[in-house]
Amino acid sequence: MKKGFIFLLTTVIILTSASSTGIVSAESLNEINENIKEVEKEKEALEQEKQQIEEKQSDVENNKADTNKKIEENQGKQKTVKEEINDIDQQLTTTKNDIATKENEIEATNKEIEDLKNQIEELKKEIKALEEKIKKRDALLKDRLRSIQQNGGDMKYMEVIFGAKSFGDFISRTISVTTIMGQDKDIMEQQAQDKKVLEANKEEVETKKIEVEDNKVALEAQKEELIALKKQLDEQMAERETLMAQLEEEEAHLEEIILSYEEEQSVLNAEAAAKQKALALAESKKGDLEQLAKEEKERQEAANKAAESNNSSEPTTQASTGNPNGIFILPANGRISSHYGMRFHPIHNVNRLHAGTDFAVGTGTTLVAPADGVVFRAGWLGSFGNVIMISHNINGQSYTTVSAHLSRVNVSVGQVVSQGQAIGATGNTGGSTGPHLHFEVHLGGYGNPVNPLPYLK
Ligand SMILES: [Zn+2]
């Protein structure tokens, strides 16, 4: 009975001893290894996302290159069409000049025809006048001959002939009458000759007129041909101008597409940069966890050794709150001078939430990042004085930490920091009555403060 109790007690002691050292350490090591696996998964996912973005970037780059090629082709076409337009324009100018020349020629021809018509009219008049003269003289001559035959002669001839004073005078007078009659006949013959000349002239002018009129018809035909050519050129020109307008519109559209690709590129570039940063963060987190695992393993081995040698002394660690479940290391080491919670404000005479934990540390003490994260506020902020706010993502939960009243800030907004990295120095700036670090923890983004102690190691 007694022997059995001792055996049981020994077993309990051994089990208790085991659970308080080896098992707890193993659990914590498992947890770290689990975290490493999670970070690796996260990294893998990020790599995949990064690859997808790179594929998209490559697609957009190709599309952009294609579009630029289309723009080049379009500009080549525009050049050709412009050259064609210049060519047609020159042809049009030539054709218009040709038409003007033809019109001048036709105008000259019309004048010539008019002149010839006038000449013909003139000749006709002259011919008619001569005909009348010839007709009159012919009638006169016939009258004289008739009166000589019927009445022994024209009275005037008779008077001239019979008024003779002697035979000699009679002969002389008869010769004179005959001479007069012969002269009439000569004049008449001359006039007939003149008429023939005029008629020949008239015929010549009429032939000339027909020639000129034929020429005019030819000129009109040439002009019509030129007008038809011009019409054709105008049509070609209109076609090219329509084509040109289409090409210009297409080019503007392609330029718009290029712009939209460039916008897409800038978005993808920003996304790729963000993924790169997240990857760097995950890498750094993984390194820290591996270091932690190594340390934990060493500690476990040391603890096992200690257990073997039945030595219960614990290895001393760095300054900490002694909380094994904490996720943040102390940003600065010091005695807690004020806790999180409602407290009476002696000046404002009200109860107010003290949203953080105060640590009594001297001005200029190095401030370290409590965990891996990205700085999103660094510098002066009202009663906080100089403050650093960091966004953390730990095991799928995001946290925001605030370190206030700092004397120095060594990080900037957007900077990625890793746990333990020196980021500034504590101080007494803003609404502070003595040198201390005011440290806050928020779940998620800023605005949801919780007691920092359970989260501090
Ligand atoms: Zn405080």
UniProtKB/TrEMBL annotation:
InterPro entries given in the database record: Cell_wall_metabolism_enzyme, Dup_hybrid_motif, M23ase_b-sheet_dom, PcsB_CC
Signal peptide: 1-26
Pfam family, one: CC_PcsB
Compositional bias per record (Low complexity), positions renumbered to this chain: 303-314
Gene Ontology molecular function: any one: metalloendopeptidase activity
UniProt region (Disordered), positions on chain: 43-78, 293-326
Segments of skewed composition (Polar residues): 315-324
Residue stretches making up the Peptidoglycan hydrolase PcsB coiled-coil domain: 127-200
Annotated protein name in UniProt: Uncharacterized protein
